[in-house]
Amino acid sequence: MSNFLPNSLVKKLGVNPLFDTAEFIKVHEEGKRATAIRLNPLKLKECPFFSGGRVPWCENAFYLNERPVFTLDPLFHAGGYYPKTLLLCL
């Protein structure tokens, strides 16, 4: 299945009906280090950055085109969003 992801991990994640196995594997096999954020829906309704699109297997999560300096952003300190690796966007 994948040289980078253990088959057992992908199988366990695949149990979630919202999980897109093909997209998950594709993103991880590209080899690029992608940055994503997960919005706190109680504080933000829209992505505050130029987004590269939604993370298909995670509600309220977005790819970012580039990695900002999160610690300089007041929305980060207010808990409006959380930086995530794609694996943690579940």
Secondary-structure blueprint:
Elements (H helix, E strand, L loop, with lengths): L6 H7 L7 H9 L5 E5 L11 E4 L6 E4 L9 H4 L3 E4 L6
Antiparallel strand pairs: 1-3, 1-4, 2-3
Quick summary:
The chain is of the alpha+beta class.
Q: How would you characterize the overall build of this protein?
A:
- This protein is 22% helix and 19% strand.
- It is α+β, with helices and mostly antiparallel strands and 90 residues long.
- A hairpin with a 6-residue loop joins strand 2 (51-54) and strand 3.
- It is globular.
- The relative contact order is 0.21.
The strand line-up of the biggest sheet is 2-3-1-4
Number of strands: 4
Largest sheet geometry: 4 strands, antiparallel
Molecular shape: globular
| Structural class estimated from helices and strands | alpha+beta
The protein's oligomeric status is: single chain
> Are there runs of 5+ residues with pLDDT below 50, and where?
none
Helices and strands, in order, run as: HHEEEHE
DSSP strand content: 15-25%
Q: What's the rounded overall pLDDT mean?
A: 82
Task: Tell me the helix content.
Answer: 10-25%
Indicate the radius of gyration in whole angstroms: 14 Å
Q: What is the count of DSSP helices, taking H or I runs of 4+ residues?
A: 3
Termini Cα gap? 20 Å
Can you give keywords for this protein?
4-stranded antiparallel sheet, globular, alpha+beta, single chain, 90 residues
